[in-house]
Amino acid sequence: MNPYRLSWSHGEAVVLSTAAVLADCRFDLPGGAFKPYARAPWMGTVHDPSIIGHLRELGGDFVCVPFGAGPAEPIGPQKWASLMTEPPLLPIHGPAGDAEWSLLSHDSSSVTLSLDYPDESIIQRLERTVSGRDGAPALDSSLTIYPRYGGRISVGLHPILRLPDAPGALRLEAEFDFGLVHPRHIHDGQDDEFSALDDVPLPDGRVDLGRVPLGRPNVSVQLCGMRGPLRALFVEDRAGVELDWDRSILPCLQIWCTDRGINGPPWHGQYRGIGVEPMASAFDFNTSLSVRPNPINKRGIPTAVELAEGDPLTISHSVTAFALSEAEMRVG
């Protein structure tokens, strides 16, 4: 594993060769240093190759091609469980989230890494660039997918923000067409749809997912048809970030919030973070489910990207930090 350090006018960051993970990032704001990304407490200490690369070095951002992690057995309501006819592909979230990437270029404020895919994959190669934006507290990233042949595949980005200690101290703002609760949380006959983050139906009651942490170990939802960027306001830090991306390519956002809710190695009930994951996928299910008709794409929301042979596809995203205004501090 090789670390690549970046420094620019408004911050510093570290990107690793392992899974091309953004391992650390600091934004310099007028009020001081601001670090919005999650960082696993075990980073740099896990060397077991049976543990996937992005979990060994679970930092603040990586890419997933294909986007998908399981489950191994059908779960949830029949409308979803009946589609889970194949086991998850390994490694989960594709080679991008596991392998050692190769260095293409690196200067003081930017790094570009590449990864060749197996010969049987629809993907020939990926390139990922992460750059500090000169003159701004912002980090710009791009993922270029080089197809081996034409077809469809689920794709996602995987930023993870840190969870504050105080309940509700992180406020999330997002506009979307409709939201769905992850099938792992619900059963047939239970309400799974919502139109605002402050009214998310869970089996034991409705919750405000716009104010986290919730005091719950695990919550996952998918926001379908995103109409703009996500804003995350860290009230105690008097700072926030805006996550923006190519929504014409990745029309959804999965929110995955875990608050010491995962056991087993390397988690051991320690990890706290909230994934805010732009994607073209049906939740984090096997990509074979995402490319077939499913309850999301039947409503006109793509759950995979279309690739054409010889036509590279570039997906950009950015995270921009800002100080909270007095009005923003008073809201909520």
Q: Could you describe the 3D structure shown?
A:
This protein is mainly beta. The chain has a single domain, classed as Distorted Sandwich (Beta-galactosidase, Chain A, domain 5). It is built from four helices and 25 strands. Strands 6-7-8-9-25-21-20-13-18 form a nine-stranded antiparallel beta sheet, with no helix packed on it. Strands 5, 11, 12, 14, 15, 19, 22 and 23 form an eight-stranded antiparallel beta sheet that branches. It has a four-stranded antiparallel beta sheet with strand order 1-2-3-4, with no helix packed on it. The chain starts with a strand and ends with a helix.
Give a quick rundown of the structure.
The chain is mainly beta and 332 residues long.
**How much of the sequence is in beta strands?**
35-45%
- Whole-number average pLDDT? 96
Q: Biggest β-sheet: count, sense, barrel?
A: 9 strands, antiparallel
Oligomer: single chain
Protein name: Aldose 1-epimerase
Organism: Devosia nitrariae
Features:
single chain; 332 residues; mainly beta; Beta-galactosidase, Chain A, domain 5; nine-stranded antiparallel β-sheet; eight-stranded antiparallel β-sheet; 4 helices; 25 strands; 5% helix; globular
Task: Walk me through the topology.
Blueprint lengths: L2 E6 L2 E6 L5 E8 L2 E3 L18 H4 L6 E2 L13 H4 L20 E5 L3 E7 L6 E10 L5 E10 L3 E3 L1 E3 L2 E2 L8 E4 L2 E6 L11 E2 L5 E3 L2 E3 L3 E2 L5 E9 L3 E5 L4 E7 L6 E8 L12 E9 L6 H5 L13 E3 L5 E11 L2 H5 L2
Antiparallel strand pairs: 1-2, 2-3, 3-4, 5-11, 6-7, 7-8, 8-9, 9-25, 10-24, 11-23, 12-23, 13-18, 13-20, 14-15, 14-19, 16-17, 19-22, 20-21, 21-25, 22-23
